[in-house]
Model the fold of this input.
Amino acid sequence: MTRRKPVVSGDTIEVIYTDERWKLLRELRDKAVKIMVCLKDNGFDSIVHGSVARGDVNKDSDIDIFIPVVVPSYKVELVLSSAEYPIYSREIVQATPWHSIKAHIYIDEKTSVTFPLTELRENEWEFYKFSGCLNVEELLAGKRVPGVDKRLMLIIPTEYGHIEMPVVGRESEVADILGVDVKVVEERVKILLRRDAIGRTGVYLKREVPKDETFESYLKKLADRDPIIRRRIFEK
Done:
């Protein structure tokens, strides 16, 4: 997969989708809907965020589904396995010591269901709005939403494709369009530019969960060795 570098300057342009791109978008959304409906039928509301919500998909696009509340991991795994979704891998991830700790269940290399293992901080929900997000009802209705991609380009859906423009230098305007605090936009710009400069993701914690462990039991073992993780677990 080619890493998409942030864009720090440039013009606003219109992108017209090909029939193949519309077909790919329908396929990815259909797959996301099936998983999200399965979760909802079992009491778990979720969103899909990123390019599937915005519409600007390509052959490397992931399906990122997020349950925005702390839930018992075994229940999510049971729902997925009962619907015959295989568990490709499981990871515990924490972006920084200040962010919530999240469980990632990968159904395949490009499809994941994520949920927090610790409470979300007040502004973390806005990061999903930053990239663009939809619930299953909105997805079924064919809605698309604006959001920012990994290049730091604001994607604004249109009837024929999308309009895109660089976020850098337009942080306040982008915040107004997305309905988020401008500090969220500024922070994401800073993080993505830093990642590009140093050439790595820079996440604080990323561990694969052993097959014989639950997310919660493995997180407890990590917390026993790391006071920062332990503090985040018990922080209210």
The radius of gyration is 18 Å. The chain is about 40% helix and 20% strand. Residues 224 and 230 are 7 Å apart (CA to CA). Residues 18-142+202-234 form a domain with the Beta Polymerase; domain 2 fold (CATH 3.30.460).
